Amino acid sequence: MSMAMSEPGPTAATSGLEGVIAATTTLSKVDGTNGRLTYRGYNIYDLAQTTTFEEVAHLLWFGHLPNRKQLTRLMARFAAERSIPNNVMQIIRALPTSTEPMDALRTAVSAWGAGAISGKPTIDQAIALTARFPLFLAAFERTRQGHEPLQPQPKLGLAANFLFLLTGEVPKDEHVKGLNSYLVLLADHGMNASTFTARIVASTESDIVSAVVAAIGALKGPLHGGAPSKVQDMLRAIGTVENAAPWLRAAIARGERLMGFGHRVYKTEDPRSVALREMARVTDPQGFLLARHVEELALELLQQQKPGRRIYTNVEYYFATMMGSLGLSGDLFTPTFAVSRCAGWTAHILEQIHNNRLIRPDAEYTGTAEQRFIPLEKRP
Ligand code: ACO
Q1: Which of 78, 110, 149, 260 could form a disulfide with 139 if both were Cys (CB 3.0 to 4.6 A apart)?
Q2: Best mutation site among 231, 309, 321 for ligand 1 pocket (most ligand atoms within 8 Å of CB)
Q3: Which pLDDT value is given to residue 8?
Q4: How far is CA 86 from CA 82, 108, 192, 278, 376, in A?
């Protein structure tokens, strides 16, 4: 009996598992009180300004930033994986043009995994998957626009290749820099909903593709990664600085949630949105003026309506402003988030299986107490 006494007993159900620690991780630290985010101890401001997405992926997968030789090797491994098998391309081409890109990505990843992946998750598989996310997305985008998918450029990195594969033009440096910083900023974020999903699937000893497909499903929802196109819709609907106040007041009065505001963990400014705000100011000065005005007003109105709630702008808000200026259509925003987060998901999957225990929480039963069974013919 003494053994049972030392085991942790069940705790009461927590709404949305808020405040529950579900795993230990050495990947990223989210400090919601002070608005700080680090990957393996490195502040994301430093990483976003100076590193490539590939360097950050190396940091997450291998545990340290690469030296030049290690980076060259990783880039070569990425380049070697940049291809879409014919059967997967056929599936992408067969999708109705009305398919949401997030669904197209989920389908392509799943189809690719069906032939390519088995066994215990490995770093090689993580690289193979992360390298293909931009390809799958760009192939679908080109196809639905009635264009042929393009071949990746061996000399370009992941961010530049993604823009090239979408447009067929070598992208401007400032656009590559903007997208690269975004990919760096979003690569990992503690135990967010999609990462938790990936870790749960990995904990059953399922394969890496199944875990990533499940994570894509979780990211799609507007309360997680599906908000940026809705931010863009909101800014479009507002349209002008003059229209901001009446539009926001009416939305708040209807009890609507303002997209791009609020976060489960950050009770101060999301450090990623601070970094993206600066980028949006440069990449799209015109759009920035309206976005900044709407942000300031929305924060003021939310503060009045929900005093003490500590609602701030989240990462989706300026991402929406910035992505529009890169020429990406609104429904590509969330899958672009997935391109970045694939590095974090796969790093978490590898971390989970390294010291695995099946994730299997309890549920508190609140249904009817035991009832007497009535056979079908006697039920009223
Ligand atoms: N607009 C208006 N009110 C809000 C908003 C918002 N965007 N966000 C939270 N609130 C209010 C809620 O109405 C609630 O008020 P109440 O207690 O008076 O009912 C209070 O703040 C707390 O809200 P919760 O839903 O309990 O907060 P939770 O931690 O579950 O939600 C979430 C976080 C889902 C992100 C929420 O803020 C939201 O819906 N935001 C809009 C969607 C969005 O921007 N999603 C992107 C998230 S960022 C990311 O995942 C990378």
Answers
A1: 149
A2: 309
A3: 61
A4: 13, 11, 34, 41, 53
